Amino acid sequence: MNDAHCGAGFQPASSGQCRLEACATKVFCRPTFPLIGLLLCALVSGCDFNAGTGGTGEMVVPAARLRAVEPVTMGSLSQESPTTVPSTMPLPTTLPVQKPPAEVTLAIEQARRLALENNLELRVELLDPAIARTLVREEEARFDALFNTAIDYTKTDQPTATRLNPTQAKDLRVTPGFELPLITGGTLRLDFPVDRFETNNEFAVLNPGYTTDFVVSFSQPLLRGAGADVNAHRIRLAFYDYQATQARTKLEVIRVLAAVDRVYWRLYAARQELTVRRQEYDLASSQLRRARRQVEVGLAAEVEVTRAESGVADTLEAVIIAENQLRDRQRELKRVLNAPGLDIGSPTAVIPTTEASALRYRLDAHDLADAAVENRMEMLELELAIARETANVRIARNETLPLVSFDYAYNVNGLGESFDESLELLGQSDYADHRFGLRVQVPIGNQAAMSRLRRALLTRVQQFATRDQRELQIRQEVFNAADQLEANWQRILATRQRVILAARLLAVEQRRFDQGLSTSNDVLDALTNLANAQSAEVAAVTEYQIAQVDIAFATGTVLGASRVVWEPAGGRK
Length: 573
Known about the structure:
The structure is a single chain. The chain is an alpha+beta fold. It has a domain at about 70-95 and about 260-370 and about 465-560: Outer membrane efflux proteins (OEP). The chain has helices at about 25-30, 35-45, 65, 75, 110-120, 120-125, 125-140, 230, 235-295, 305-335, 365-375, 375-400, 420-430, 445-515, 520-555, and strands at about 10, 20, 70, 70, 105, 145-155, 170-180, 185-190, 195-200, 210-220, 350, 405-415, 430-440, 560, 565. α12 runs antiparallel to α14 (about 445-515). It is elongated and about 150 Å long.
């Protein structure tokens, strides 16, 4: 809130809290202007609190930090230029396949976009900030002005022992009023009671008589419950909850994006695994044909055909298992995406078009851990919890003070035979009353308030300990993710070397079989070793991609080159 909006506004103090500038201090010193001074005080309540700009003393987290998910590329994290290793020689695919179903090609960027647009879990989470924002507005509404009115009609008929008292009377009283809760904790009331009194008293000067008053009353606590910081406390807490909800929603956005990336690469691995098993089946079939030719020319025994047929059956089973795993991975990705036309029951095949890159990245785990502590939304949520408990401590301290209230009332009276005459006298302000009061309430012992203060202090200490514990866990997650990334890179090197050697061994065994120096079992064993080596290489490359996703998730970012900015379902506020 700025001074251009309210002359008696809030100004941020050096301590980070708020102080209220007395809007009518000088005016109160002039006894001839009490009404003007009180009306100027009402301007404080008329201000727009605009929680979220520090107007109520709250800690404000920049919107960009709450809603923008920063991108990160592995190249930017690496200390050296990425290096690659040579790919292995591909094996031919000879396994006949059935007519494939309809296919949809999907890059990883498209998968992320579809998940952000359609993921049901995320759609639910995006409603939470809008709901939390309504609670802030609800607390701000505590300082809305109130219009109230009361209508009373009394008719009396009672005996009396003296002619000075009436036996019958009619009294109609209408009291419209305006009540203004102040951010200082006080209350300003403006009442305009109108009364018509009619009696059978023969001594009544005015019958009927009309009374009109204008009453301004002001009540302000001076110790307990006094000040803008105390009375804006519930708004501040609601705003902290709103920001914490945004932090949790951002965490959910990051989690969904990381889940999409992991499922995408697992689908990529399943397709590569199926390709490997199909190649294994084709090579086993080639070995069967080779064994039959050897038997026909008399260079091998009939048992070699049986051995080769057994190998074909084994590889066919591996193909069936790989195909089923591929369908499972496709359904898993379809569930996460929840995109139109890609429901989990559709036969449409999803073809990943983003290729896995085997580039080595050298990371500084200590720098990553520092960045994770800075960026993770769990840490921000704990910081907001600490700010909340700090505010609770201030309020608990205030509640230990005595209750001292200052009351003032200013009343202008009007009286006449008619309503117009009464208003005319009221306008002349010839008859005015002033009332001052001071109320004091001191609790004996004050144990309840002191207990609440101790509880608030202990809760804040607990939040500090929780923050330190969570920071240690985050650092551990980052170091584990960095080690896993390096381990998966070493796996890639080992499995690629294994593939190269297994391919050489298979070629040797095939030549030996053609020369009658080995059996089909030797060839099939070499073939199985090659397929398993290729499957291990696919797993290592895929896990290396997933490890990069885990690095980004551990640091509170999203892998890729695009910045993700989310908005609450109810619109940006």
